[in-house]
Sequence to fold (164 residues):
Amino acid sequence: MATPFHAELVTPERVLFAGDVDEVSMRSDAGEIAFLAAHEDYVAAVDITVVRLNAVGGAEGERHEVRAAVHGGFVQVDASGVKILAGVAELASEIDVDRARRALAATEAPGGAEPADTGVQVGADAGEGALRRPSGAMLALLDPGAPDAVARRARTRLEAAGAS
Fold:
């Protein structure tokens, strides 16, 4: 049995989850990551991702998975636990699956949109001091209405809701 620790998933509007967990998994801008008790301190940008919180609660120590579609933000891990600060997030049980499917279908329509031009120079032709290719999280922040960002958010909602 894993050691429980405190985790929070917070948006500007509300606290979506606060409680004891034995694991948190998600995708940060550096890739897939999972946190267990006593994880070393960590701070990262959160990608558009499904956050999975393995919640522990009740007198019997019952476990259940809490899933949420998170559309960017930050994660901080320290001795007090894991804190995910998201600009936008939805619990799986609150996701409008039909709306997510419509949003995804709109981005996949014939003549669909081109990837967003962020104006960020990358690669060998960008010159000295050029930035590395922006992560998906950064691209979604630079142009949240871009069809590729809209499609990623819709796919994440569907995955979180178990309808992908």
Confidence is low (pLDDT under 50) at residues 113-124. Residues 147-160 form the longest helix (14 residues). The beta strands are 5-10, 15-28, 31-35, 42-57, 62-78, 81-86, 89-91. The chain has two domains: 5-93, 97-160.
